[in-house]
Structures are given as C-alpha cells and as structure tokens.
C-alpha cells in the first residue's frame, strides 16, 4: 500500500506543470521563464495578452509572438516575447512555453510569480532534463552530457559534451551491448539445443567476437581521462 501511494505521488508530481527562470541571475538584456506540463497553454493563456487580441490557444507551435504578461487585474507586468511549443516536439516531450522578458531580477521574478499564482509549480533543479529522460527524449548518458555542456571550460570540452549529447556515445554503447547480447544468445542456444544444427558461432569465433568487444570497451574507457581534462581543465 505504501509503495502504491509513493508511485501515485510521483505520477501526480510529474503531471504538474513546472516553471523556472532559465537565465542566470544578474543584470542582462533578456530574462527567460520556461514552463512545461499539461496545463501550460491554460496557465500562460491567462497571463499573456497579444496586441491583436489573439488567444494563446490559437497560436502556431514553435513560433514567437509579441505581447504583455499581465496580473489578475489586467495590469501589465512586462513586455515579452513568447514561444509556445506543443508536444511531442519539445525538450521534455510535454507542452512547453518560453516567456522572454526584460533581464534583471525584478521582471523575471514577477513573471515567474504569476505562473505560480496560476497553478504552476516551481521546478526542482534539473527537473526539465529529468522529464526529458522520463519521457524518452534523452537517455542517461545524454542527461549527463547536459551538465557537462554547462560546466565546460574549453571549446574542446564543449565539443566533447555536445558529441555525447548528440548521441554518439550512446550509439557506441548500444553497439557493444548488441554485440554482447548476440554472444549470449549463441551461447544459450548451444546449451539449450546441442543436437540441433543451428547457425551459431563456434567457441573460437565467440572468443574472437568477445575480444573485439573488449577492445571497443577499452577504447571508450581510455577516452575518459582526456574527456575529463577537456571538461574540467587541469587542476
């Protein structure tokens, strides 16, 4: 019963619409608030006013629109540009909205506060990427690459992390995994059906295949030290 309650709690939490300031603190030209979740259109539609009077739900996905964020009385909070991105073609594979207002703490905090008043929940650190992972948008290797991109201290480090985010490391690991599964399948088939004339590799061929997989794995492991230097620098 306790497990079911915990599972239900996690499900409800993931279904909530989350919001967060996505630009660094401090003075800047632009500040951005991002939302993701099932009620994004409803929440942002209640706080955004386009000069044309056009409603948010009629906006085209993945296009930028000009307007104002307003409070409950209709008073303008900030002049903004808004982008609505409908699932599944988004980072989290949920409906996403990005509200770009003036930089600095005051404007973006006011916009964020308005989203929370209308039912959004403040996102936990890394929760947008967590949802991208849970919804199958990225795997764990790519999720790790995101923080490496952010923390990279050199162009080489950035390039290495981007390659990982682009899925190249995941593809290499999948190739090794597939090779191991093929070997295991051949071994199990030879044990379960020793009398059958199956098209399976003999022991020497299996050993050679395992040796090649071991070599590929070792080559990947050898890149870790260099990649770490690229990401973190020499310390």
TrEMBL record:
Location within or outside the cell: Plastid, Chloroplast
UniProt-listed GO biological process terms: tRNA methylation; tRNA wobble uridine modification
Domain spans labelled GTP-binding protein TrmE N-terminal: 17-137
Domain spans labelled MnmE helical: 140-234
MF (Gene Ontology): GTP binding; hydrolase activity; identical protein binding; metal ion binding
Gene3D superfamilies per record: Probable tRNA modification gtpase trme, domain 1, tRNA modification GTPase MnmE domain 2
Pfam family, any one: MnmE_helical
Keyword Transmembrane attached: no
Keywords from the UniProt entry: GTP-binding, Hydrolase, Magnesium, Metal-binding, Nucleotide-binding, Potassium, tRNA processing
GO CC entries: chloroplast; cytosol
SUPFAM superfamilies referenced in this protein's UniProt entry, alphabetically: Folate-binding domain (SSF103025), TrmE connector domain (SSF116878)
PANTHER family on file: TRNA MODIFICATION GTPASE GTPBP3, TRNA MODIFICATION GTPASE GTPBP3, MITOCHONDRIAL
Protein name: tRNA-5-carboxymethylaminomethyl-2-thiouridine(34) synthesis protein MnmE
Organism phylogeny: unclassified sequences, metagenomes, ecological metagenomes
